[in-house]
Amino acid sequence: MSATPRLLVYGATGYTGKLVAEHAKESGLDVVVAGRNQERVKALGEELGVDSRAFTVDDPALLRDALDGITVVLNVAGPFHRTAGPLMDACIDKGVHYLDTTAEYDVFATARSRHAEAAAAGVMVMSGVGWDVVPSDCVAAHVAARVTEPVSLRLALKLLSATPEESEGLNLFSRGSIVSATEGIGDLGVLVRKDGDIVALPEPKAASFDFGDDGLEECVSVSMGDLITSHHATGVPSIEVYVQVGQPLPIDLDLSTLPDGPTAQERQVGRSKVVAEVTGRDGSVTRALIDTPTGYRFTQLSSVEIARRVLNGSFTPGFQSPSSAYGPELALAVGDSQIKDL
Questions:
Q1: 105 and 188 in contact (C-beta within 8 Å)?
Q2: Average pLDDT along the chain
Q3: d(CA 222, CA 184)
């Protein structure tokens, strides 16, 4: 690894990538911006006053050469099922830590499958260093630690907690998130973890959760990376993940009608919330809620915070979830996030 810790942000010219790269530079990290388009990457490097590298992930030899002198790769280039595998392989071969901001279930499964190789190489592999899955992983670990024999976990995500006036006409997603969701989340069907194994359901499940806004709110089960990360962090054998109904998910939206992503003002509107509910072997139920800044703002902060920690030498080799590496308190270091026991 480089004697001077360096962070390479891959996908830095995308909507989320630019937010992350800007914050990393503002935070005093030694940043290299990277991506596929040489002209755009060079322009961003000049704008931020940092080094730039243009490369694709298709050529293994060139990809490994592009990681020379890099300590940590932060992959923000979706759809992640196209970029994560090659970048993970290259990072493990080169002794470079790998992070990404994916919400795609298959990428979490791929990251978990690299555990032994990464541990042997002495590097950490962590997917989901943004709003997916830092808050949910941390609140799940927080609640599970309060239960003597946890046997099941339910997580419920509310993407936007805001008044109708605040949310009217609000753009919640970047184009990259929509493509990533369409290709990486929407085609999976409905997965849950049951007695330790991932199983497919014939149809989504419905359930109601209280996010502290309007009483019980209807939610529907979805396939998310928490089925991997929360199991790794807590050991709870049965896990289900839900999303609040009534808010648009980034699936089947017309890209041509949308801007690149939420404006700076839109990113400040409302809050995002996750409820974690753990059932013990005795039938007792324990709950907590985490309240955070909304997705892109949280991702901008959390991904750079985790990268900063790894650059400073705080990491556990192998596959890790955010809370398994840094504890439930990690989420509380991001913005003004708060965990409340219910």
A1: yes
A2: 91
A3: 12
